[in-house]
């Protein structure tokens, strides 16, 4: 799939990431991790607002009472969009100042799953945490390098996860009541020439939409047989994440990055760091709300 005239939101992120569809506000949110910027794009009016935080801002999730949960450096905070008040909730790896959060999602029971990495990208330095209502982060997967994309199946029995440098999408048994996971198999092996799997979401047909960093697009993978089904080709090399949104949950918002591109490459790919909106013939799911 190579859509022509893809609608673009010119956010020029250094490292755009973490897209979220907020049904209540009918807005897409996403972040620029390194610049600490939170973007909100209201779909009907095409108005984009930017809020800034003096932290690395890796994750934006929807919490209770219309508030957001933000992953700032290595801490979770509750953010009130009306008062702009920030309430710190919990943190991880406080003795590792080179670490930060990376990708995060809310599971179907409202628990937050959020990963870490070393900003030096030290192999095996990161972890994936699960955070319940008691706000005590518990390691679920240790020894990760770039903890990244996550998705749950509609029946709440399967969890998919990406540690980017492995080029694998791993499949786990998922227990909804306890939140426990158990490795089942490698569902997808991404060939080297397609870049690295980054952020991910799932559609109502059970297919995985995966942003490929260095792969110039979003790839649709069938996790049942590991086959590539489709690709959205974009005019930028580093595609970082994607999520479904819009009134019918059939619009894919895609984030991209300028990092690791030379001045010559940025001239060649001037839309790097912008956000793309692609209308699809399939639908995704509404994001789960955090339980706090």
Automatic annotation (TrEMBL):
InterPro entries referenced in this protein's UniProt entry, alphabetically: 6-blade_b-propeller_TolB-like, SGL, SMP-30
Entry-linked Pfam families: SGL
Record domain SMP-30/Gluconolactonase/LRE-like region: where: 15-258
Membership in a protein family: Belongs to the SMP-30/CGR1 family.
Name of protein: SMP-30/gluconolactonase/LRE family protein
Organism name: Algoriphagus oliviformis
Lineage per the UniProt record: Bacteria, Pseudomonadati, Bacteroidota, Cytophagia, Cytophagales
């Amino acid at each position: 799939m190579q859509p022509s005239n893809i609608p673009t939101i010119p956010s020029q992120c250094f490292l755009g990431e973490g897209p979220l569809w907020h049904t209540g506000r009918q807005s897409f949110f996403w972040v620029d991790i390194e610049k600490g910027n939170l973007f909100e794009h209201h779909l009907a009016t095409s108005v984009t607002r930017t809020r800034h935080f003096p932290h690395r801002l890796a994750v934006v999730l929807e919490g209770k009472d219309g508030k957001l949960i933000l992953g700032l450096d290595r801490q979770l905070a509750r953010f009130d969009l009306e008062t702009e008040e920030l309430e710190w909730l919990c943190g991880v790896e406080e003795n590792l100042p080179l670490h930060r959060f990376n990708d995060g999602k809310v599971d179907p029971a409202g628990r937050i799953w959020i990963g870490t990495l070393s900003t030096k990208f030290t192999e095996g330095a990161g972890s994936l945490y699960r955070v319940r209502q008691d706000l005590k982060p518990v390691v679920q997967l240790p020894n990760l390098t770039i903890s990244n994309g996550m998705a749950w199946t509609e029946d709440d029995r399967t969890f998919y996860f990406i540690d980017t440098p492995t080029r694998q999408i791993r499949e786990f048994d998922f227990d909804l009541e306890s939140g426990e996971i158990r490795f089942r198999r490698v569902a997808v092996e991404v060939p080297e020439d397609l870049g690295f799997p980054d952020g991910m979401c799932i559609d109502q047909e059970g297919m995985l939409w995966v942003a490929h960093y260095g792969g110039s697009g979003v790839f649709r993978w069938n996790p049942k047989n590991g086959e590539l089904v489709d690709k959205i080709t974009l005019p930028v090399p580093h595609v970082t994440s994607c999520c479904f949104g819009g009134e019918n949950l059939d619009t894919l918002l895609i984030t991209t990055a300028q990092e690791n591109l030379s001045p010559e490459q940025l001239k060649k790919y001037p839309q790097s760091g912008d956000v793309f909106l692609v209308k699809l013939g399939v639908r995704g799911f509404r994001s789960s709300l955090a339980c706090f």
